[in-house]
User: Which sequence fits this backbone?
């Protein structure tokens, strides 16, 4: 059966492979499904880190550059 998902080959350390297999078995899902779930979580964390860096940079600007909440949202 054809799939619209792309395949990715990953070389993992034995400890990572064992942990991944254990997590897949615990959650009763295929190994590839668990790997994809964990990759999605990791990408969300990366995005959160990037957005936090942007927020930190913006909050470091002088207060006179801030727009009051009521002017933005009415």
Assistant:
């Amino acid at each position: 059966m054809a799939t619209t998902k792309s395949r990715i080959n990953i070389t993992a350390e034995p400890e990572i492979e064992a942990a991944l297999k254990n997590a897949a078995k615990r959650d009763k899902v295929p190994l590839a499904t668990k790997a994809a779930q964990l990759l999605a979580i990791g990408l969300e964390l990366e995005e959160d880190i990037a957005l936090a860096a942007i927020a930190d940079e913006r909050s470091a600007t002088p207060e006179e550059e801030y727009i009051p909440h009521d002017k933005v949202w009415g």
Notes: The radius of gyration is 21 Å. The chain has three helices and no strands. The first helix runs from residue 14 to 27.
